[in-house]
Structure formats: C-alpha cells, structure tokens
Amino acid sequence: MDEDSRIAAVDEIPEDGSFLFTVRDGFDTEEAILVRLSDGVVAFENYCPHWRDIRLDKGSGAPRRDGELVCEKHGATFECDTGHCTYGPCEGAVLEEIDVTTADGSVYLADDRYEFEKRGSSGDHDLSSRGRIGFSGQ
Ligand code: FES
User: Fold this and answer.
1) Atom of ligand 1 nearest to the CA of 71
2) What residue ranges do the domains of the chain occupy?
3) How far apart are the first and last CA of the chain?
C-alpha cells in the first residue's frame, strides 16, 4: 500500500462516532468520514444530503444512535454500512461513498477521484460564509 494514501489506523476510528479526514480533487478539498463497522470500515463525504452545507462530523465525530449516523440539524439517520437515509427530511437519499481499503490494520484511500490530503478538517468552513452556516457554526 502507498503510504501517501494511508488515512489512519483502524483502531483510531471510534466505534461510536467517526474519523474526520480531508481529500483533494485538483484544487478543491472535500471532507470525508471513516465509519467503523463490525466487519470493516467505510467512508462517506462529510455532508448531509438534506442541506449539503451541513457537516455530519463537525470535528468531534458524527453522532451515532442505534447503529446509525445522525445528522444533528434535523435528525436524519443513515445506515452506517450503506449511507442510506432511513428517516428524516432526506429519507431515501444516500451518503456519497468514498472508496477505502484496509490492510495490516490501517485504512487507505482507494478512490481514483481523490488524493489523501490530511487527517482532520479541511478548514474551509472556518473561513467561508457559505450558505446556512451561521455564526454559531451550526
Ligand atoms: S441538514 Fe441534515 S437533516 Fe437537515
């Protein structure tokens, strides 16, 4: 595996939250989250399909309830393994998956669309006044 595409050790991904990281697509960066499953790891882009400017993981892990990811804004819930929205204003929508693979206890980016940029936040949301992100950061 290419060390440049290594995101994290599997053990670093919380079982009750998510692990935030940033990928690059040319000049653009996108945030994504690693989600730990009982039998592996999946990754999704870090936004809610209801309002794409709302992040699921705001830096301390996306909330999980009964084995599902929860968007704190309006309470939509998503299956951790498929990203399928089971309840909420975007019911039926699906989180955008990012391909990752695991080897020797580590998770690697395996998606041709992106390069691994860094662990953690992109930082973009701190600088912009995009959309519905208000002063509270909600
Ligand atoms: S922004 Fe996520 S449920 Fe509305």
Assistant:
1) 2
2) 3-119
3) 37
Going by CA atoms, what residue is nearest to atom 3 of ligand 1? 74
Name all contacts of 74-81 with Cβ < 8 Å and 24+ positions apart: 74/50, 76/48, 76/49, 76/50, 80/35, 80/37, 80/42, 81/37, 81/42
Band of residue 33 on the pLDDT scale cut at 50, 70, 90: very high
Q: What is the pLDDT of residues 64-82, one digit of tens each?
A: 999 899 999 999 999 999 9
The pick from 65, 71, 85, 91 for probing ligand 1's pocket by mutation, whose C-beta has the most ligand atoms within 8 angstroms, reads 71
pTM comes to 0.90
Tokens, residue 58: 């705001």
Q: Enumerate the β-bridge partners of residue 101.
A: 108
Among the atoms of ligand 1, which is closest to the Cα of residue 48? 2
- Determine the CATH number of domain 3-119: 2.102.10.10
Tokens linked to 9: 């050790």
